[in-house]
Amino acid sequence: MKQYQKKLDQLYTEFSSGENGLSTEQAVKNCEKFGRNVITEGKKKSIPVIFLEQYKDFLVLILIIAAIVSAFMKDVESCAVILVVITMNAILGTVQTVKAEKSLTNLKKLSAPTAKALRNGEKVIIPSEEIAVGDILLIEAGDQICADGRLVECASVQVNESALTGESVNIDKDMSNIEGEKPLAERANMVYSGSFVTYGRGKMLVTEVGMDTEVGKIASLIQNASERKTPLQNTLDEFGKKLSIAILIVCAVVFGLSVLRGGKLMDSFMFAIALAVAAIPEALSSIVTIVLSFGTQKMSKENAIIRKLQAVEGLGGVSVICSDKTGTLTQNKMTVRKIMVDGRIIDTDAVDLDDEKVKTMTRAMILCNDSSCKDGVEIGDPTETALINFGTKLGIDTDKVREDLPRISEIPFDSDRKLMSTLHVIDGEKVLYVKGAADVLINRITSSDEEKAVITQRVAELSEKGLRILAFAEKKFDKDTVCPEDEDGLEFVGLIAMMDPPREESKAAVAECRKAGIKPVMITGDHIVTASAIAREIGILDDNSKAVEGHELDAYSDEELVDFVKDKAVYARVTPEHKIRIVKAWQANGCIVSMTGDGVNDAPALKQADVGVAMGITGTEVSKDAASMVLADDNFATIVKAIRNGRNIYENIKKAILFLLSGNFAAILVVLFNSLLGLPVPFAAIHLLFINLLTDSLPAIGLGLEPHSEEVMKRKPRNANESILTRPFLGEIALYGVVIAIAVASAFLMGNKTSAALGMTMAFAVLCSARLFHGFSCKKKGPVIFSKDFFNNKFGLMAFGLGMVFLNSVLLVPPLKGLFKIADMTGMQFAWIYILSFGSMLVIQLIKAIFFTKSEK
User: Fold this and answer.
1) Closest to 12 (Cα-Cα) out of 122, 121, 134
2) What does the DSSP assignment read for 473-530?
């Protein structure tokens, strides 16, 4: 049996407590028995350990071996360059990992520093971590709750539980006995750690502390939720493993052939190492990181702040968006949508102030109201401020109405009565206005049964549309003060129906999601009727999808849930556990899942999702730390923009990978060609590193910054299990690599006629320049040379220009020639370098024109 279902006497006995709280000795015993009121953290890795873990990749180990061998052979330059590259990557990885682990630290901030407790029958102030199960705490408006507890005294207590439930409306609390299972949002006799008392006062019996509280359970979920690698990370990891095996096999073959031909053992080994260096795209991870970094800058200008670089690529593959309702899809601002007077339901745009019934209604809603709105600052309950804003929208000067008709007596709102009353003098007569819940007020009015039936029907009609209903009544009065017994014999005035309306951009954003093959899903702590109404209005819920409540998920195992979620578009009254299960179920369906949220209760699911998205304005620090992206404007439409950017960035990364791997494949082919024919090594290790780090990196970054296209949102999202290195893509890499390799091998043979050093120089120069020209070929699927897209990327043009400057500096400047082992060339030999490299681009363009007739960015 849960704590909210037990009798108070049962709880007192269980915790050895009573109405006067615990004794000091019993508090110590309870702390030992039930635990201390602290949020514990899992064991964290030290920064040195995280740094060393960055070197676990097999490709990195091969590079380290190459560096050691280079140092042994006194090739200091090659050794230094390799070590600098892998160290830079390790530092980047360490920084990313250390930044990621902040969620539990911020959860601790949700615990109030002190609390008012009864100890030994006396009121004392104690630190929150010394609170024990069984303590009696005193709470009042403005207090932050520091443990979970059962109310034992309640005077109109209202609590904001938005950090736990995601819903910003204050919750009325009472001391009622509850039977059966209830979601957290409906446990009226409980208050929870991390929430705030907004109204009233009371006492609570502490029932859970520390990791057993709802906040503590969320902390456990955050610890256990695994951050998933993005599809691109998985693809590159898988590619790295396969490439490692291939490199070992090929290097072994090359080494064996060289030794069999009578080559020196160390020379043969260095030849094999040269091949390994040629095969490994040293700069690939750095290029991807740089491209993603530039992508984050563009997104930040559109209110999407990226906390984890990998999220940019993950966004490009999102196929399901699980979104919170309040503040993300809606405006997070209660707004009057309809009124009902004299049996008529009237839209707010059609309200006529000349109608006496309407005039009475607007006067009642302004006077029987404690909120205010001055200079754009709203003070008071969101429901009441909605009424004042409605009056202002109608052109009524609400301050003047209150000034002319001052309140002479009142009965404040009470959660037990669910009513509020104010007394005013109007046209020389005293009038009592009463506002409250429709089901309560209808029993206090003098209307006939037929009239009550009409009112009940109208309430049902409005409630079915997800609207929150307030009823108003009045009566003539002859006393100067009001008491609860006077709230009877009332004359019905009307109903006001309000809701948190959808953002204007939400409907268009949802439509764009559907067009792009993305399924939007609403997950909320709100009532299913309200959630369904909003979801249907903006297009998330339709005839082919369903709305369910969170408790329905409990009947299904994780395996069964995989099929269950497929046709569900709305989940209401959900818990943090439900959110994680929904995300995992979609991930098990092969989907890349984005999850949005703003509360502490959202943090575990934000961490579990492929792309967790927190709210920048309303979001808690815990949710922001757990997320990989933060919305500066809390707007669902911004997520869609980010997905569009993510898809474009993914396409650009593919172009960069095509460029890098096809160039590296060309180098491999040339090394193998020379090995099989018994020719000298075509490249020095420093040549390959120069190409990979300088003349290769710049065009790859340029390709990563290609202009974005709207066309990407007309395609279906890729499957989470789909590799970036598909067979057609690998075919392109191989084909372009062969073309470049032919040009490079031709240059080597041409130079080798004079000397091996000249052959090596010409092979290096052609490989370098051919790859620079190849950057243009990788801009689009089809031919680019005669299209407007050839010159549409200033970064690409700058990269080509700088690459040419670097290459020619190495070929022509004497000090650099010695460093990079460059032989002297004749003018004609120099010309052949550019004839062969430019010719390779023309051949690739011809292949594209034949096989790829449709251009595709």
Assistant:
1) 134
2) EEEEE--SS--GGGS-SBEEEEEEEEE-PBPHHHHHHHHHHHHTTPEEEEE-SS-HHH
d(Cα 144, Cα 373) in Å, to the nearest integer? 25
Which residues have CB under 8 Å from 817's CB, separation 6+?
Answer: 810, 811
Using a cut of 0.85, tell me whether the model's pTM lies above it. no
Instruction: Give how far Cα 425 sits from Cα of 358, 445, 476, Å.
Output: 19, 21, 10
* Tokens standing for residue 151: 């109310």
DSSP state of 823: P
Task: Say if residue 855's pLDDT is above 60.
Answer: no
CA torsion sign for 189, 190, 196, 200 is positive
Q: Residue 495: what residue type?
A: L
What's the CA gap between 454 and 478, in Å, rounded? 30
DSSP tag of 350:
G
Residue from 660, 674, 661 nearest 275 by CA: 674
Read off the pLDDT band of 407 (50, 70, 90). Answer: very high
The tokens describing 727, both together, are: 């067979």
d(C-alpha 545, C-alpha 554), whole Å: 20
pLDDT band of residue 584 (cuts 50, 70, 90) is very high
Phi-psi region of 179 (alpha: psi -120 to 50; beta: other; left: phi over 0): beta
What is the C-alpha to C-alpha distance for residues 218 and 652, in angstroms, rounded to an integer? Answer: 38
d(CA 655, CA 649): 10
3-state secondary structure at position 168: coil
pLDDT digits over 660-680, tens only?
Answer: 889 888 988 998 888 788 888
Report whether 524 contacts 538 (CB < 8 A): no
Distance CA 64, CA 59 (A): 9
Contact (Cβ atoms closer than 8 angstroms) between residue 627 and residue 315? no
Element (H, E) at 587: helix 576-588
Per DSSP, helices labelled H in 394-503 are 398-404, 438-441, 449-464
The CA distance from 416 to 23, in Å, is 32
Q: Which of 88, 89, 71, 72 is nearest to 80 (CA)?
A: 71
Determine whether 324 is an active site residue: yes
Token pair for 105: 């630290």
What residue type is assigned to position 222 of the chain?
I
Among residues 459, 456, 458, 487, the alpha carbon closest in space to that of 474 is found at: 487
| Tokens of residue 244, six digits | 């490692």
Q: What is the mean pLDDT of residues 183-197?
A: 88
Q: Are the C-beta atoms of 232 and 288 separated by less than 8 Å?
A: yes
Residue 37: φ, ψ to 5°: -90, 65
| Per annotation, catalytic residue among 143, 324, 486, 696 | 324
Question: Pairing between strand 611-615 and 629-631?
Answer: parallel
